[in-house]
Batch of 4 targets.
Target 1
Amino acid sequence: MTFIPDWKIADDGWPVLALAGIVTILTSMIFLPLGCFFLGIMMWLAHGLRLPSRQIKADDQTIYAPAYGVVLDIENDRFPDGLAGDDAAPAKRITIQTRLTDTQLQTSPITGHIVDSLLLPGLFRKWGHDSASWQAARLSNERREIRIRDAYEREIMLVQLGSKTARQLISRLAEGKFVQAGEPIGMARIAGVVDVFVPTGCKLLIETGQHVIAGETAIAHFFRRPSAKRS
């Protein structure tokens, strides 16, 4: 019996997979062994671009990892300019790098509404191995800022960052769209870097070098639950 993986491809992964399929067919017609090689590449892409089936039990005090990958850096910072309100300006920044072998899908860290989704054009510099090169890439590389507000008026910012491999920063969710924690929110195709900005009072639950799973790994807890939800 032949085993066929039960993979559901993420919507944002289909264009890449379709292109890989066309290349595989054309190369198979010209030179079959090369076509077999590209078939292997296509299967690898299908694995990375799939929509994983997970049981997510989110609560309104927990912030979940928005991407698969390794935690590169955790630093005190400030929210990007898109976040309104001086009292919310200080932040903790968690940087996650998705590898080529990771699932590429990105998910919402909290349950709430999309406030902003802004694409800011830039370069696609390579991320180095030190904080100085990371900061230089943040300033010059293309990025997409996605701000999400929950029912208690608490906000987090997800920033997709371009790189040598991640040249398409995708989030098709319109402003005002309601998303559940762990729900697909976009993709940095492929192997991108993401910064997660959380309020400075949050308790961090992860550490540098840790591998995280989108929508499943808890990365922080809000400091406290407000007394009442937004009406």
Target 2
Amino acid sequence: MFVGPSMGKLVRIATFIDGGYFDEVSKYYKFQHPRASRLNVGGVMEFIQEEVAAWENVDANYCQIVESHYFRGRFSTAKASEAGKLEDERRFDEVLMRAGVVQHYQPVDDRGFRATEKGIDMWLALEAFDLAVHKGFDVIVLIACDGDYVPLVKKLNGLGTRVMLLAWDFSYEYDFRGETRYKETRTSSELIRTATYPVIMNDIIDDEARQDDDLVNGLFVYG
């Protein structure tokens, strides 16, 4: 057993998940990637614990996730039911609940031509900073890609809270009504630079040397 900078004290971890981004990444691995599988919330949490332990240079037993929060916009019950998505939403709620993840939902603004999530990033940032101040987490893990989170990370740096960023970069082509379209998702380079521990997840997942790694394979739900 090795004990690093924590001097034998528990490294308290809190995770904050941008739900729209998490869903986008999960769909990519399900429908566009050879893995053909969605992300496993429990597996992601286990990966986080081990990854923080590696960066902090402590035994994994000294790294514990004490809080997890998930933020996302949500359609009304009527609209979700009309779209046939109500059961899927309820099922994923159960997944989050069993993983100990607190859910934060805000109504989707669907008054315009295209429905949009408004204020989710600000809400996540305010909650993360407020909890960091009052609970003194050692490490906050952020699953997000938007540069709008840079001020949050800088504020957390000022508190002395280390920030781990789980980031994915990917692109693909898809068919839309007979037309080939291109989709690209990139994590803000400034967000990566500002984080204490930036973890580029697509590089880890696609690393041939880790194809038989149980921790990496546990990131996905197969079957």
Target 3
Amino acid sequence: MLRRSLGLLLILFGLLAVTWVGLQYASAAWYDLETRAALETVRELPSSEPESMPDTLPVGEPIGTLEIVRVGLSGVVVEGDSETVLARAIGHLPDTPLPWNEGNSALAAHRDTIFRPQKGVRLGDVLRLKTPHGDFDYRVNETLIVKPEDVWVLDPTSNSTLTLISCWPFNYIGHAPERFIVRAERIPTVNVAATRTE
């Protein structure tokens, strides 16, 4: 009798855990869809005069979308690096410049959600960041594995750089001991619509 009750309790616990994880993924997917739609609406608005690009944004403010087509990575980028932000999006570290400004802009996400495809990133891969202030392309020029205290990866750079940060190893259970870093330098942005029509 005790063994049967314990078995039923474990099954119930398992069902609750699966339901909770499913709800988290559904919530993140819904947030992603809503944020992408809002960003596209802003991008499509006619601009009568040049809009100044902000140096800072409030936490939770959408910045744009990041794509690495070759590995199938696509996610919404939001200002902030809190657990609330990282549970639903790619977070921009507020102490680094926003992507449309010069310098080293850092983005972070969880290795087991949005940044999982990052494990397939190779040198030369192109990243595209689409924002209401323009599209920005970057080419991967370095990947590193560092300790969490190696914050030098956030140091300012003289050129426009995108630094992606996630935990490593990707298949580690629990709090991973190291960080996987992707460094990419901005390159001239290719107008995809124009190249398709030529």
Target 4
Amino acid sequence: IPGLHRVSVVKFMPGAEYEEMHSSASQVYLHLKGKGCKLRTTEKDGVKSEHDLYPSHFDVLHPGTASKAWNDADGPCENLNLVLTDPAGELELF
């Protein structure tokens, strides 16, 4: 897939947290299973949102969007994450 930089399945154990921001990449979160996974985003223009992730729920983050994902449930949850860049551009992940 042109522009596909990373594919990962992330298992969040209870209490796990992860923050990141890709300055030149889009990111797709697809929730696979489990309860308690949440996603908070802050767009470049300062707009903030927070989502509970449910199976088959997905979010697409634009380049420059800061994100925090975490699990506040008693059991694990899993997400599929894709990082996509402009195939003709330079990659700047952070």
